[in-house]
Amino acid sequence: MKHFLDIESLSKEQIEQLLQRAFYFKQQVQFPNFENELVAYLFYENSTRTRISFELAAHHLSMKSIIVDLKHSSESKGETIEDTIKTLGAMGIQYCVMRHSQNYLPQNLASMNQTMQIINAGDGTHAHPSQALLDIMTISEKKPDLQNLKVAIIGDVRHSRVANSFQQIALKLGIGELIFVAPPVWQFENLVYGQTCTDLKEGLQEADVVMCLRVQKERIQNEFQLDLQYYRQHYALTKEIISFAKPNALVMHPGPLNRGIEIDKEVAESKNSVILEQVSNGVFARMAIFEALVNHS
Ligand code: CP
């Protein structure tokens, strides 16, 4: 693997290998030593989970991390992102973990003829492939029979790179049933797998996994004026509504949570919630990604 850009670019075998290595790392106390590998982080959008877990993954593998302080970098003087990447590469940095609001920017940068290996930590509304990997790791750890699962994804599907990457990984691995539940203005424009519906109770019926998406206020400001009160009334995961799913249904959320908007405390902190396990698994999934990039496997 030269870059880690999106789930579409990976084969089923590559995904399974990444998962196998992530589970392996979870069992270990000693890890491979990649002390000669240098990784830079270019985050043009905020992040807690993704950036820190990539940093921790690099730390566990003895890689050296360089956080690029974008507020004080030469991009403020007009340097292009392409030149920034080339500049970091010229200093000997081999890997760049990047998050940006522009769809497909990591793919475009990866297609430049340069040595830097690009890792997509989220591009616009397009892809969040490491999130999909940790999500499927968390699901398969608890419910390994993926072919017989029903997964319901609730919320702002249209603007969600998490939902898009999840549908891609569900397609590759053959999740039995995938349903996206969203109000009409937030339905997918690019459904490749599964079905959509607008009724939450219908979507939750017989669900083994319920993944709640964050309402992305920063992406919807002037675009789709959806009344949050209406959203909450019809789509929020409350204690009452979650009972329409199977009693042992996993509750997931990529984070950060808008408590009291898309999910209630009682659901986020219920015994079925695996939200913090998603976060823990993120470190191991990202270790597997780094290893595959270092080894070009
Ligand atoms: N899930 C996720 O991408 O969270 P962060 O924005 O905190 O990285």
Shape annotation: globular
**Contiguous helical run count:** 11
Give the % helix.
25-40%
Bound ligands, each once: phosphoric acid mono(formamide)ester
Structural class: alpha/beta
Specify Rg, calculated over alpha carbons. Answer: 19 Å
Average pLDDT metric: 95
Please provide the count of β strands.
9
Q: How would you spell out the order of helices and strands?
A: HEHEHEHEHEHEEHEHHEHH
Main β-sheet: number of strands, strand sense, barrel status?
A: 5 strands, parallel
Strand content: 5-15%
Low-confidence segments? none
Distance between the termini: 5 Å
**Arrangement of strands in the largest sheet:** 7-6-5-8-9
Protein architecture, described:
This protein has 297 residues and is α/β, with parallel strands linked by helices. The chain is built from eleven helices and nine strands. The chain starts with 11 loop residues before the first helix and ends with a helix. The strands form two sheets. Strands 7-6-5-8-9 form a five-stranded parallel β-sheet. It has a four-stranded parallel β-sheet with strand order 2-1-3-4, with helices on both faces. The mean pLDDT is 95. The chain has helices spanning 12-27, 49-60, 81-90, 105-110, 129-142, 161-173, 200-204, 228-235, 239-242, 265-268, 275-295, and strands at 38-43, 64-67, 95-100, 117-123, 150-154, 177-181, 195-197, 209-212, 250-252. The protein binds phosphoric acid mono(formamide)ester (CP). Phosphoric acid mono(formamide)ester binds next to α2.
